[in-house]
Design brief:
Length: 247
């Protein structure tokens, strides 16, 4: 499976937990030998401006986060593009699902998922998309930026029971009419992370469900990293998910 990554994501660009030292290494150390590396390239400003206001883009620039945030958005575009042909994962940060057009919070700056899907839509590569956000936190920025556009269906499963969480995912994934399924893959719902719910094997199952749903739709699938903060288990949960998604 191809994984989009860049050494620059290792730099600790802020003090928040998504930017913590060693977080990228915790994942790469586990998955690195089992995937094919694709080097991330930054998104162009026109791609970012398709989702965000100039005010917000300038704000991110003032914070000194623009370069790494544009690189993350570019990685998401690459993963989505590859995803049309084969399952793909973007190991990127900062995360993006709390980024709206004119503001962001929760360790996010640019909405990587929205920028990626908007790029594919503008280039005529997709007509309908589906976003599954399995992060512990509701992807408000993705809903704000894509929810009203009419071509994307979004689903944020939520439960304190892993069985129920998996059932929700299975029940809500599309079976037809979608060109691509994008997963906002946060791993903070894990038993040994902030959420305390999902087992490692659950991530494999979710990956499989997404892969199967994409097959039924005769469409593609990809995933991008959002949250996940326990470095001891983060890489293993990510690998478990990729095993399911990659087949
Ligand atoms: Zn989260």
């Amino acid at each position: 499976m191809k994984v989009v990554f860049h050494e620059d994501f290792k730099s600790s660009y802020t003090m928040d937990p998504a930017a913590a030292d060693g977080r990228m290494e915790a994942i790469w150390d586990v998955i690195g030998k089992r995937v094919t590396f694709v080097k991330a390239v930054p998104a162009g400003e026109e791609d970012i401006a398709a989702v965000h206001t100039k005010y917000h883009i300038d704000d991110v620039r003032r914070m000194g986060i623009y370069d790494v945030a544009a690189l993350a958005a570019g990685g998401a575009i690459q993963a989505a593009t590859i995803g049309l042909e084969e399952p793909c994962f973007a190991l990127i940060r900062p995360p993006g699902h709390h980024a709206s057009a004119n503001s962001s919070w929760g360790f996010c700056y640019f909405n990587n998922m929205s920028i990626a899907l908007e790029k594919l839509r503008r280039k005529g590569k997709i007509k309908k998309a589906y976003v599954l956000d399995i992060d512990l936190h509701f992807g408000d920025g993705t809903v704000n930026t894509l929810g009203g556009l009419g071509y994307v269906t979004l689903f944020n499963p939520s439960s304190s029971s892993r069985g129920d969480f998996l059932k929700q995912v299975q029940k809500n994934l599309p079976t037809e009419g979608v060109d691509i399924i994008g997963v906002s893959a946060g791993f903070d719902y894990a038993k040994e992370d902030w959420g305390g719910v999902l087992e490692r094997s659950d991530y494999t199952e979710i990956g499989q469900m997404v892969r199967e749903a994409a097959k039924k739709c005769i469409g593609g699938c990809f995933a991008i990293l959002e949250g996940g903060y326990n470095h001891k288990v983060l890489g293993h949960n990510c690998m478990a998910f990729l095993e399911g998604l990659g087949g």
